[in-house]
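A quick aside before the break. I want you to see a complete sequence-to-structure record at least once, exactly as it would be stored in a machine-readable document. Don't worry about memorizing anything.
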Amino acid sequence: MLGFPRLVARCAASFVAMVLAVGALAQTAAAPRLATPVFSQLVMFSLPPEFKSTKPTYEKNSGSFYIREHVPEGESLASWSRMITLSGTRGLAANPNVTPQALLARMTLDFQRNCPDTFSSNAPGQQKIDGYDAYEVIVSCGRVQSDKQPYGVSAIMLSVKGSKDYYALQWTERGRDSAQPQPIDVAYWTRQLARLTPIRLCPIVPGEAAPYTSCTAR
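That is the input. The structure line, written in tokens, reads:
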């Protein structure tokens, strides 16, 4: 079954195609900085220590849409408690009809479709990430039905308008299900996203290889 964060990200990619058709806390020593080339820029964030490996659990680049997922050591895409998802959509920043808020509005609707009776959300709103326009939303499903047993899932989602492309960074957590919409603890989710800071968008230096110190050491 398609991973829930990946489903939301891919639904957002479908929204992007439709639009195109119609015209923080300091990093600690225990949290290495991970920079990834995503189309026209490097996207950097800090990887919390429980995730251990900088190698993604899942990664795919279709040419127009990029996604990578990380789960903690000992977990898998079939069974996970937390997940970090980075996605990118090529060339979207040139479209004047798309904003960070609009992109997350579509992702929020796709999230809500999985739990219309137990959905809740909160929007901390506009942000600046490394000087780029960004928007932040927290979403929660009290109960999501699955092949095995229902579960609850919540996420904080950040969209960033890069120089040419759009990027989304998401921290998702699974837990016990609830028959009622769950209250959003904004302070808690703000701390979770802060664990990924600093978040940066950097130019790609021709010939530079991982770990891309031009970005991680800046």
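Two observations worth writing down. Residues 4-216 form a domain with the Protein Transport Mog1p; Chain A fold (CATH 3.40.1000). The chain has one domain: 4-216. We'll return to this after the break.
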